[in-house]
Q: What sequence folds into this?
C-alpha cells in the first residue's frame, strides 16, 4: 500500500474517525507535533503503521523535519487536518514534489492577506484594517464604522475575538487578545510554521449585520453557513453546505448542522460565491472550509476560507447525511488516484447530523452562574431529544467526566469547550430544536440528573 505521512496537531476531526479513512487508502505513518489523545488510543492506534512524536520546531526546521520523515517512510502523500499545520505541510509538499495546497497557502491562513486577495478580486468582505501596533488602532477608527470586531489574524475557533466600540476598548482588547493567543499557544492551539505569528498580529473589521430570516425555511438558524469542499489540482469542487445555530458573543459557535435547511436556489447562490472566493486564493490540492455571512435581501459577505476541512465532526456530518467520505476523497486526490466529484454541490441528503459544542453559557452568551462538573452519563438525554434523535459523546474532543466546566469568556471563544457531542435527527430543523433544548437545560441536568448510558435515543 502507498505510505502516507499524516501530520498530527491540535484541531480537526478526532483521530478515531479520521485515521480509518486515511488508512483505507494507504499505510499511515503519524508524525505528531502535539501530544496525541491517549484517552482514545486504543481506537486509533491500530490504524497506524508507525507513530513518531517530535519536539516543537518552526519555520524551515519544521518543514525540514516533515520532509525528512516523509523521506524515511517513502511517503507518497503528506497531509494534515489541523489548521495550525497546513502552512508547514504545504511547504513540505512543495519541497518534496508532492501534491499539496501550494505556494498560496498563506492566503488561506492569514486573515489579513485573505481579505486583501478577496477585496482585489471583488469578493464581498467587510471593511477591515490591519493591526500591528497601537497607532494602527487610531487609524482604523478613522476609516471604519464601529462597532468593530477585533480578531487575531492567525486564530481559529473564534479565539481572541472581541467586539469593541471605541479606541480605548480596542487597545484594551488588543492586550487581552494577545494574552489569549499566548495562552492558546501554550496549549498547542497556535500556528506551527511561525511560532511568533498570531500573538500580536490582529485586524479590526466592520461588523456586518447578519439576517437569516430571508434565507432559511424555518426559524432559529444562525446567520452564517460554511461550504465544505476540495480543491483538486487548482480546480475547486464545492461538496455541501453546513448550517449553524446562532453564535454567542462575540461569534463563538454552538452547533454546526448538516444539511442547512435552505432552498436549493439559495444554496446555488452560496455555491457560486464560495467558488469565486476559493478560486481567488489560488490553491493547489487541499480541503476547503469556507464561511459565509448571510444578510437581509440576499446579501453575503465572506468570513474566511481555510485550506482544511471543518473542525469537530463536520466531515462525519457530511458522510452521515450525504454519503461523502471527504477525507478519503482528499487522500485519493493527493495520491493521484481518480476521484468522482459530484457534478454540482449536493443539496439534499438523508436525515441530519450535527456537532454540539458544550459551553458554560446560555443561548445569549451569558456565563452560567454556577459551574457544575461535566458528566455526559449524568444527563437524561431522552428528555431533551426528539423521537428518533440520538446523541453520542466525542471522547477525544471532551473533558473527562467529573471535570469542572470551564468558565466561558468572550475572548477565549472555543477554548472554553467542555465537550463535543455528535447528534443525529430526522431533519435539520428537528436537530436544531434538539440542540436548543440541550443548551437551555444542560446546566440543570448536570446539577441534578441521574446517570444513564453513553449513547441515548
A:
Amino acid at each position: 500500500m502507498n505510505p502516507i505521512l499524516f501530520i498530527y496537531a491540535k484541531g480537526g476531526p478526532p483521530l478515531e474517525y479520521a485515521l480509518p479513512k486515511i488508512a483505507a487508502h494507504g499505510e499511515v505513518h503519524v508524525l505528531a507535533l502535539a501530544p496525541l489523545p491517549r484517552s482514545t488510543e486504543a481506537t486509533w492506534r491500530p490504524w497506524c503503521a508507525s507513530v513518531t512524536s517530535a519536539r516543537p520546531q518552526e519555520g524551515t526546521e519544521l518543514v525540514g523535519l516533515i520532509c525528512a520523515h516523509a523521506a524515511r517512510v517513502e511517503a507518497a502523500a503528506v497531509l494534515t487536518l489541523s489548521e495550525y499545520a497546513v502552512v508547514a505541510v504545504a511547504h513540505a509538499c512543495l519541497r518534496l514534489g508532492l501534491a499539496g495546497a501550494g505556494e498560496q497557502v498563506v492566503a488561506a491562513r492569514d486573515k489579513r492577506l485573505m481579505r486583501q486577495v478577496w477585496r482585489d478580486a471583488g469578493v464581498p468582505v467587510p471593511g477591515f484594517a490591519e493591526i500591528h501596533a497601537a497607532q494602527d488602532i487610531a487609524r482604523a477608527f478613522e476609516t471604519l464604522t464601529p462597532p468593530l470586531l477585533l480578531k487575531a489574524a492567525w486564530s481559529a475557533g473564534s479565539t481572541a475575538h472581541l467586539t469593541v466600540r471605541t479606541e480605548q476598548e480596542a487597545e484594551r482588547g488588543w492586550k487581552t487578545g494577545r494574552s489569549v493567543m499566548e495562552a492558546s499557544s501554550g496549549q498547542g492551539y497556535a500556528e506551527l510554521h511561525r511560532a511568533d505569528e498570531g500573538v500580536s498580529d490582529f485586524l479590526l473589521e466592520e461588523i456586518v449585520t447578519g439576517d437569516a430570516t430571508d434565507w432559511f425555511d424555518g426559524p432559529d438558524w444562525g446567520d452564517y453557513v460554511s461550504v465544505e469542499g476540495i480543491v483538486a489540482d487548482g480546480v475547486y469542487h464545492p461538496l455541501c453546505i453546513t448550517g449553524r445555530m446562532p453564535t454567542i458573543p462575540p461569534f463563538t459557535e454552538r452547533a454546526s448542522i448538516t444539511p442547512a435547511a435552505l432552498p436549493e436556489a439559495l444554496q446555488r447562490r452560496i455555491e457560486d460565491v464560495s467558488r469565486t472566493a476559493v478560486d481567488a486564493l489560488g490553491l493547489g490540492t487541499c480541503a476547503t472550509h469556507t464561511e459565509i455571512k448571510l444578510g437581509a435581501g440576499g446579501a453575503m459577505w465572506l468570513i474566511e476560507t481555510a485550506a482544511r476541512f471543518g473542525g469537530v465532526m463536520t466531515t462525519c456530518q457530511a458522510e452521515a447525511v450525504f454519503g461523502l467520505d471527504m477525507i478519503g476523497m482528499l487522500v485519493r486526490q493527493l495520491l493521484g488516484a481518480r476521484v468522482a466529484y459530484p457534478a454540482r454541490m449536493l443539496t439534499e441528503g438523508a436525515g441530519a447530523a450535527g456537532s454540539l459544542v458544550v459551553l458554560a453559557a446560555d443561548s445569549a452568551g451569558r456565563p452560567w452562574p454556577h459551574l457544575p462538573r461535566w458528566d455526559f452519563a449524568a444527563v437524561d438525554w431522552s428528555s431533551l431529544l426528539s423521537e428518533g434523535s440520538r446523541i453520542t459523546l466525542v471522547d477525544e474532543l471532551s473533558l473527562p467526566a467529573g471535570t469542572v466546566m470551564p468558565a466561558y469568556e468572550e475572548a477565549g471563544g472555543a477554548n472554553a469547550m467542555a465537550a463535543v457531542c455528535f447528534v443525529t435527527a430526522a431533519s435539520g430543523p428537528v436537530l436544531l430544536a434538539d440542540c436548543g433544548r440541550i443548551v437551555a437545560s444542560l446546566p440543570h441536568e448536570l446539577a441534578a440528573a441521574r446517570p444513564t448510558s453513553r449513547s441515548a435515543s
Observations:
- The longest strand covers residues 235-244.
